[in-house]
C-alpha cells in the first residue's frame, strides 16, 4: 500500500475513510468521498444533540431536511445562514452558503460559541475538543426533539 511520507496515511485509507482532501496548509477539508455519500459532520454531537440543532435551525434558518441527528450539507447551510445573518453574531460568516464545514464556518461558529456557550479557545477555524464541547452545550441548551 502506498504511504504518504508526511503523515503516514495511505491513499487507499483516504478514499475508504472518506476524508476528501488535506489542503497545502495542512488543514483538513472535511467531507466524505464519493457522490453517493452525504457529508455528515456532527462535531462530536450524539444523535440527540444533532437533532436539537436541526430542530433549532428548522424553525429559524431555513433547514428543510429531516430531524435525523445527522448534520449534513443542508444542516450546515442553515447554520451558515444563521452565522452570516444573525445581528448579534460576533464574527459573521462571510463565505458561500455551501454547507461545507471548513475553517471559515468553524471560526464563525467558535466566535458564536465563545459569546454564548462558554468556548474559551482561540478563534482558529479548527474544531478541537473545546469547540466540540461548546457545540454540545449549544445543542443541549435547545429544547429536546
Automatic annotation (TrEMBL):
<dbReference type="InterPro" id="IPR036366">
    <property type="entry name" value="PGBDSf"/>
</dbReference>
<dbReference type="InterPro" id="IPR036365">
    <property type="entry name" value="PGBD-like_sf"/>
</dbReference>
<protein>
    <recommendedName>
        <fullName>Peptidoglycan binding domain-containing protein</fullName>
    </recommendedName>
</protein>
<dbReference type="InterPro" id="IPR006311">
    <property type="entry name" value="TAT_signal"/>
</dbReference>
Amino acid at each position: 500500500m502506498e504511504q504518504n511520507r508526511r503523515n503516514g496515511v495511505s491513499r487507499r485509507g483516504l478514499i475508504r475513510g472518506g476524508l476528501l482532501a488535506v489542503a497545502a496548509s495542512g488543514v483538513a477539508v472535511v467531507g466524505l468521498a464519493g457522490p453517493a455519500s452525504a457529508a455528515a459532520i456532527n462535531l462530536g454531537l450524539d444523535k440527540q444533540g444533532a437533532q436539537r440543532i436541526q430542530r433549532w435551525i428548522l424553525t429559524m434558518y431555513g433547514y428543510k431536511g429531516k430531524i435525523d441527528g445527522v448534520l449534513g450539507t443542508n444542516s450546515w447551510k442553515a447554520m451558515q445562514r444563521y452565522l452570516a445573518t444573525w445581528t448579534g453574531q460576533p464574527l459573521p460568516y462571510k463565505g458561500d452558503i455551501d454547507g461545507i464545514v471548513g475553517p471559515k464556518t468553524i471560526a464563525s461558529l467558535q466566535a458564536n460559541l465563545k459569546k454564548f456557550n462558554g468556548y474559551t479557545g482561540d478563534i482558529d477555524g479548527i474544531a478541537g475538543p473545546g469547540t466540540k464541547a461548546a457545540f454540545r452545550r449549544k445543542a443541549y441548551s435547545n429544547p429536546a426533539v
